[in-house]
Structures are given as C-alpha cells and as structure tokens.
Amino acid sequence: MADYEREGNAGFYRFNWKLLGVTALVDRIKAHSDGRITSSLTFSWPGADGKPAKYDCTLNLVAPRSRTELATTLGQTAALVDEGQWIGIIHTLCQDVIEAFRNGDAPEPLQFRHMSEKDQFLLHPFLLSHKPVVLFGDKGSSKSMFALYMLLLVENGESAPGLNLSDEKPRRTLYLDWESDKDDLNNRAALLAEGMLVRNPKPPLYRRCTSTLADDASQIAKIVLENNIELVVIDSIGPACSGDINDPQVALLYYQAIRRLGAVSTLGIGHISKEARRSKKKSVIGNVMFMNLARSGWEIRSDADEERADHSVVLFHHASNPTRRLGPQGFHLTFNNDSLLIEVEDPTTTFAEALSQTSSLLNFLKEGEKRNQEIAEYLEIRNSKQVDVLLARLRKRGQIEKRRHGVWGLVESRVAARDGP
C-alpha cells in the first residue's frame, strides 16, 4: 500500500495518498449501541479531464462487506486508481480512524522545557497560544468589537500599542457568530480596518452558526484544518451551548468541543450575570466551570454614552492559568464616520477608578431604583460623601435622576433605550 499522511483530531481527519493523488476527509464519526462505527467520507482524486473529482458517502467503518462494496464503486468511478488500490486505501483509513476514535491520542513523554511568558501568548496580554480565553462584560461594553479588533491584528500579523503579537506573522482566523449577521460584522470590520491604517488588510473568515458548538464541532474542525486556522472567536458562549448554562455539564460539553477543534487559540465572548454584578468577584454568566476551565478570563467595562462618539474601556484580569495575573488594561475608542480608532489608555488614572464605580452603579440601577445605603453597600464605599459626589456627577451628566429623598434611578430615556420599543 502507498505511503500516506494523516492529520486531524478526534472527530475529523484528513488522509492524503500523494503518489496516487487521493485525499479523504472523515468526519461525523459516531459509535452506535449495536457496535457500528459510522462516519461521513469525502474522497477526491484527479479526474480523467484533469479536474478534481469527488465521491461522498456514509460508511460503517467496522463492516468488511461495506468496505469492499465501496472499493468496487470507487474502482468503477475513479479510473486512475484500480479497485485493488481502493481496497488498500479504505482498509487503512478504517483501521486508522477506528483506532484513533477508540483510543484517543497516544501517550508521549513530557519534556523538561521552559516557556517564556512571550511564548505562551498569541497576542499579549489577552490571547494565549492554543488555549481557551474568556472575555465577558455587560451589553454595550464593546466586547465583540474589541474581540474582532484582536482577530484583525492576528490575521494581518500586526501588533498595536498595548497588544503585541508573539511574532509579526499573519495567521488565519475564524469568527463564529451566534448573535449577529455578516452585514453587521462586515461593517465593524470596515470601521476597524480604516482605523488600523493597514494597507490592503486581509479579512478573517466568518461563519454564521445555528447549531451548538458541541453539535457542530466536527464541521468546524474541518474548516480549521482546511484553512490552517490558528485563532477562533466564539460569539457568544451562551447561544453556542444547549440547555441550562448554569448546569456544569453544559460547560464541560462546551470545552470538550473546543478541544475537538485542534491546537487553536480560542476567545469565547460572554455576558456577565446579575449575581456577578453584585459580587466583587466577577465572572462570565453561567456555571462557574465556564470560568474555571478557561485558561484566562478578562472582564471588559465601558463608559460608553449614547451622546458621545468616543468612549474608554478597561479590561480586568480575573482568572489566569498558567500565566500570572496581569493588571488592568485601558483603551480609548474613537468613532468617526467610516473608521474606528483604538488607542491604548492608562488605566491607572483617576478616570479608571471612576469608570469602575460609574459602570458598576449604572448596571446596579438597571435592576430598578436604589437607596443611598444600598448603593454604598453595593459599591463598598464607607464614606457617604463619596457616594454623594458620584451620584451628583452622574445626575449632572443626565444618566441618573433622584426619584424621591435618598432614592435614585436611571433617567427614563436611558431605560427606554435599554429596553427598546
């Protein structure tokens, strides 16, 4: 039998018999209760007219008769490869896939090798190499826009102030979208590309998703392998899952699906829960395992206002493994008619402290009107005068209003804008 190459991981494989010009894609592998192991197969080879030819089928990998019948069919279809060669190809493919599917990855010895902090990152300080990262925040905090910005930097091999690639090498990227649509992402990408000032920027791949990540993992792994994808953005974690996201099993299935994508970096975008807003320890919405199984977790907060064309964001590092916890990272976003400029901003300024309190208070008031004492306890402020100063500042901005003595709420226009018609 001719030599061959195999690449892929549990759920999707690609075989290549270069001397014969034959390739085979194997996905949707499934074990049945009656002992069958079935999969979808796509064979391709050079046709008699020089154009690629292909054959799609579903095969019971453990049935010798099914293998023989498929070899006969392919021998009659692909004249350049005879039936005897097809028997060898199909037998080798089935044995390899069955062994890999049943046994998983083979064990290998660890190596005594240190990794520098730089080598652990794809894009410092946010994206880890070949590991899952979570970015979470409130609605309107610019988390999806910032994720797309990082995706464009990686795709084009560009660093930016506050965002440093491990090397200036372009890498293919993929945006998996469960929330928006291609038109929206096209518009955001155009704004960011203009602001980046990169000549002829290369766009990332985009895929609109409807099935859960767990159900679609084999097909996405196929896209990753065929396009040499190194970074995948998942927008967002909740819609990418099925069932109650407070169930730990749902989080486990999510991360199992990520591992099936292969050795890629992933950035999962998530919302923040109402309970987490009340807590000093922030976390992505859903079961705690969504944060625990991520190798790094960042919260993004914004001071965005409907009346301003610019705003600032600060990202807080809440979870880290294996790197050390990093300090807050600040950025300023300036929107023009056809561009979005993102610049680094010092998060240690007085503004950053006010941002944290302002953002937290506005989110707290989304639940309804609150008394001074409730606000002080929520923000963990002991000095009543400090609370008065913060309330006066937001009242002057037109963001909150005094309902009655000692009771505050969001102005009605902000509530209407948040809730929609």
The count of DSSP E runs of length 2 or more, i.e. the number of strands, is 20
User: How would a crystallographer describe the biggest sheet?
Assistant: 9 strands, mixed
Q: How many alpha or pi helices?
A: 12
What coarse outline follows from CA principal-axis ratios?
Answer: elongated
Main sheet strand line-up: 11-10-12-13-8-14-15-16-17
Query: What structural class do you assign from the helix and strand content?
Result: alpha+beta
**Please, what is the average pLDDT?**
88
Distance from first to last alpha carbon: 67 Å
Beta-sheet strand percentage?
25-35%
- Low-confidence segments, given as residue ranges, are 416-421
Summarize the SSE layout with pairings.
Layout: E1 5-9, E2 12-17, E3 22-31, E4 37-46, E5 52-60, H1 64-77, H2 83-103, E6 121-124, E7 127-128, E8 132-137, H3 143-156, E9 164-165, E10 172-177, H4 182-196, E11 205-208, H5 213-226, E12 229-235, H6 248-260, E13 265-271, H7 274-278, H8 289-292, E14 296-302, E15 310-320, E16 329-335, E17 340-345, H9 350-365, E18 370-371, H10 372-379, H11 384-396, E19 400-404, E20 407-410, H12 412-419
Helix pairs in contact: 1-2, 3-4, 5-6
Describe the overall structure.
- Residues 416-421 have low confidence and may be disordered.
- The protein has twelve helices and 20 strands.
- Helix 1 packs across helix 2 (83-103), helix 3 (143-156) packs across helix 4 (182-196) and helix 5 (213-226) runs parallel beside helix 6.
- It is elongated, with a radius of gyration of 26 Å.
- It has a nine-stranded mixed β-sheet, sandwiched between helices. It has a five-stranded antiparallel β-sheet with strand order 1-2-3-4-5, with helices on both faces. The protein has a three-stranded antiparallel β-sheet with strand order 7-6-9, with helices on one face.
- The chain has helices spanning 64-77, 83-103, 143-156, 182-196, 213-226, 248-260, 274-278, 289-292, 350-365, 372-379, 384-396, 412-419, and strands at residues 5-9, 12-17, 22-31, 37-46, 52-60, 121-124, 127-128, 132-137, 164-165, 172-177, 205-208, 229-235, 265-271, 296-302, 310-320, 329-335, 340-345, 370-371, 400-404, 407-410.
- By secondary structure, the protein is α+β, with helices and mostly antiparallel strands.
